[in-house]
Amino acid sequence: MSTPAAAHLADVIRVCKKRPRGVRGWFTYWSKRSFVVAFGAYLLRGLREYARTLLLSPATVFSDPLSTILALLAFPAAALALAVLMLFFWLAGILGGRQIVNWISRNYANGLSTANWPNPNIFGSSSNAAVQSARDILSGETDTTVVQEASLDDDNPDFSQLRTTRVFSLPLARALLLMSSLIYERDDFLVEDAARIVLNAQDKYDEDSNEYNAQVAQAEALLQQSERPIQMQATRWDLSADVVSELASIGGPCAAIFYTPIDSGAAPFIVLVLKGTTPTRPQEFLTDATFTKTGAGVFFGAGSGKVHEGFYEHLFMRNDSDDNGGDGYGSIVRTLRHVAQRMKAGAGSAQADTKIPLWVTGHSLGAALASLMYARFLHSEEDLGPNLDLRDCYAFACPRVGDSNFATSFEESLIKPLDRKNILWRIRNHRDIVASVPPGFADQESLRNSLSSTSFLNYAFLGPAIRIRPKRIPYRAPYYTVEQGGAFHEATEVVVANAEGDAGAGRMEGQVGRTAAGGDDLAQLAQESGRVRAAMAGDEWSVLAAIIALAPSFLYNHGESSFVPPASYMAHLDNVVSSSDMATLERAAAAQQQRPLQPLATGVRRLAGAVAGETSARVRQVRREVQA
């Protein structure tokens, strides 16, 4: 059994060992197994926050009336919507909803999970091209932050002209989005079956007995089977993939790694992927809809503020919890360090002294968890050990995760040192409702001091955002905007790069310019580029995708589909790629049109210089004659 697989089995055993103690522990335990109990716990948690505010901070009811009104309206509205959702899932369970979902998946979605139904062709053969196009960046051969320094030969440098270039890589974004999509293909039901076997073994047998080991072996086989779709697709991408942690619950959000196979000889890298909300698991919607916050000082330092309680409890332990919370972060870090150590041991001599790049990504709830993981890595990079090199985080459809103090603390980490080489990019789709919740006014630094710590509106996003938009009126190319959000200093320049291995716009232009100079036909180049984009988008028509496309855009745009209209994350990234390709081709065409005129222009300049020289000589001669 491989190291990640062993870590996953040990993690399942760890989670199963947690048994309820006290009323709160009972609710925590059973809410992970029953959506009815989970909904009851959600209601009690909301009422608890109301009581805390009235008892501990009664003045805020009058000092922050807007927050009070929204809290009184938002929680009941969310509870009502969730009650309807719970009723729907209950009826679906009675009417055989699981069998219906499986039938639709087999016949119309290539066997994919509901999260990937909008694009059943997302993992087609061309997805390999998308992953391979980002390989140079993933392996660390191309930097995504380029710091311009003054030349030592310049005695009087103009420091105002020096720039720090932050590269948002489109090939990297697409590759990480594919990995974030693939993690949804884990069979959560098999994981739950494995957990039931472990629970039964823990209740009936001693851990040193043969009977216990036999039961655990059965659970291990089910866990391996649950990950088989992920591993098969990863193999097509020339990668290994393993789920490494169940975080705080079984069959819900989890953590997986995609990495270069050990002893493969390829340039090594690791991508940590956090799984988002499974559409068929109502318990996870309750986590997303939580409005309460909890202190983050233990893992992020004193004064670091508060974070979303539901997100935090998936990753970090708390000393006042009846079951001490989850230790997802600890299990992930220990596995990462061990895998990196094995990869280093199997690397060639040329890579023996090179750290292994670590990237972080996730979608939806997974993006929120990825953001918290990344924030902790920035706060304590020593956790990763001597063999890992922290790179960028790409968080797709990420909700707000913390209050004003937490956002300020995170932004401090992003600019300490001032030109640090890694950053968190938050990719936000047009009108994605999840990327707008919880409601908050703490995004703007100027407003943070005006918000009380208990305010319902004291929520903020983490990191700069790339907002991507559909290719339709009233939007125009390049179909994205950069929302900096305090993560950059004045000398920072953001480059959204499309070409493989780009380090900035200038280099991208140079590469295409050399292609054009080599005699390639621009029309053929555009046609090939269009075919690649269409293939990556999975443009084979799908009945299921067409039906899902009729959903309201604020709901549909939260998905990873590339079927348009309406647009979603992969499709919107394709729009940015398309506009970037067209701009590059136009520059190359302009360069070709100017090239035939260059000899004529050179001749004109030489003739003008000769005439000017003769005229100057004649003027000097006339002056001498006059003086004589």
From TrEMBL:
<dbReference type="InterPro" id="IPR002921">
    <property type="entry name" value="Fungal_lipase-type"/>
</dbReference>
<dbReference type="InterPro" id="IPR051218">
    <property type="entry name" value="Sec_MonoDiacylglyc_Lipase"/>
</dbReference>
<keyword id="KW-1133">Transmembrane helix</keyword>
<keyword id="KW-1015">Disulfide bond</keyword>
<comment type="similarity">
    <text>Belongs to the AB hydrolase superfamily. Lipase family. Class 3 subfamily.</text>
</comment>
<keyword id="KW-0812">Transmembrane</keyword>
<dbReference type="InterPro" id="IPR029058">
    <property type="entry name" value="AB_hydrolase_fold"/>
</dbReference>
<feature type="transmembrane region" description="Helical">
    <location>
        <begin position="67"/>
        <end position="96"/>
    </location>
</feature>
<dbReference type="Pfam" id="PF01764">
    <property type="entry name" value="Lipase_3"/>
</dbReference>
<protein>
    <recommendedName>
        <fullName>Fungal lipase-type domain-containing protein</fullName>
    </recommendedName>
</protein>
<feature type="domain" description="Fungal lipase-type">
    <location>
        <begin position="271"/>
        <end position="439"/>
    </location>
</feature>
<keyword id="KW-0472">Membrane</keyword>
<dbReference type="GO" id="GO:0006629">
    <property type="term" value="P:lipid metabolic process"/>
</dbReference>
